């Protein structure tokens, strides 16, 4: 197996440029934050300073109990300077305040609020922003000999969860091997129980990190939380750097990375023991785990061995391991409608059998979202598996988009009223009472207030009110939050419905069909909502992959149109790198390399257009390296022109003219330059530019511009 892995890696090294179908993998760290805590012995009481260490009996360099670790502090502050702050306070001191009190007479808390509001207004005008985010890398010391009560608790929950996961896998295997219905039912129940237990322990396990960040917690430590997140980010960043050298990362998560690797990259290998059991070796995991082990192992981990004498045992600890999921058949990543932005934690992944493996971040997974968008997404993702080419795939996907656009354009003619209401309505649950929101504006708050108007105030007193609403077209120009209409109004009596719809739509003259839900709806609003979802999932990714817009009725954003035109432009501006030639790997092997001083005499006429005006009857000047008398034995004696020797003179000239004509048609090698060098000289590079300039000075005609005495 080792020989096979080495051979495949050598093939990739020797031929890195290759075209082959990739594999999609999800490489994630199992229980990342708890294992970071366990590896580095992190706990709130272990974050110590110099004063704590000075009072410690083990404060000696040889003990190695201090482990410095970095974390990132981030804070937001007003961009105003100290002078501007003092000036603002001085202005407030000169202004009268409430109840004819001066600024100095107000409580400190109220003074701080007034100064903050005034500074915020000033910063918005002067700096065009109200806050500045600043990040600083800080370092704290983690004590390796602190009482490990917190670490032991985390370890117990982690180990217990691993036990339940192992039992879950065991009973899953028994389900497939069960022979009767009763045994199978028992196995399925056990699978459900152990799966629920491991999920419950997972939630508690992850809460150990969130607990130390919560204000008011007994063991709160922002430093410990920062160390955990910084270490986790460094692990994922390191994995991304390694993956970029082999394949391509697709999506970075908090504890993992989605990537594509070449199909020829080593994948999964199986060892078979003498007892008959099998052990899988997942090479992508082994590769990342080796990297993590080299850089994130804690070589200072200490455990108390003898409490009486205070003896500690030091060992290396690293329980951070990557796990691999995959390979997968397809991964759908949406695009942002804004230029230069990426949508994080949104993707759909499919197995090779066409089943949906994972869906994250889309409206389909959220409660209360527009049912139209959720239905569209539930139908469109599986269509990405259709077709044998990229164009065929987008054509299949576009059919779903065009269907739902037709539903909006026809105002739901193919649907009855109940189906239409279920499709375009939104459901929101209010977690608090309506009075707790105060003057806060929102579609849920507007719907709750209007439900209280015609159903009674008693209904909105309790929290957890379910608000089901649609967006109306009227009143024209009003914000969306003011145009939310509860769908329950169409189930009320006719007179009640007319009264409240006229009131909410601010149109007293509405009557008859004008109060029908199809005529009240803001169809442009729903078309815009659907269009944005189509842009994110279909049209923008297609355009960036040089596919014509598969849904022409949904136009590209302005920035994308210009980008597509630039990609399809036949006359694009060339990069400056095209003016330079590639240097040979071994500079000692370069043959016939010309010096810049020799470029003029050894150059032939360039194929590029020149600005010199040459008369037709003139003979083109040859390279100075090609002499007429290159072969002295060919012409022994030059014959002078006279009437008596005209025949000899003409015969000699004909020989010379034949020689010149053959030198023009056949590339001469007398100058030491072969065909490859001639092709290199005629290329449009900086070297050819300098050579042509030297040739123009040495061999071309000079135009007299001015003569002076």
Can you walk me through this structure?
The chain has 709 residues and is of the alpha+beta class. Among the domains are: 79-130, no CATH class; 330-411 and 526-567, no CATH class; 418-520, B family DNA polymerase, thumb domain, alpha/beta motif (Ribonuclease H-like motif, 3-Layer(aba) Sandwich), CATH 3.40.1820.20; 579-699, no CATH class. It contains 21 helices and 17 strands. The protein has helices spanning 2-14, 32-39, 50-54, 82-94, 108-126, 149-177, 181-213, 222-244, 283-296, 371-380, 390-409, 417-424, 443-455, 494-505, 517-520, 523-544, 558-567, 599-602, 646-665, 675-682, 686-699, and strands at 22-29, 47-48, 66-77, 132-143, 248-252, 256-262, 268-272, 278-282, 298-306, 311-317, 322-328, 330-332, 347-350, 356-360, 426-429, 466-471, 484-486. The strands form 6 sheets. The chain has a 4-stranded antiparallel β-sheet, covered by helices on one side. A 3-stranded antiparallel β-sheet has the order 2-4-3. Helix 10 runs antiparallel to helix 11. The longest helix is centred in the first third of the chain and has 33 residues, at 181-213. The radius of gyration is 39 Å and the shape is extended. The termini are far apart. Mean pLDDT is 82; it is low at 587-599, 601-607, 614-634 and 668-674.
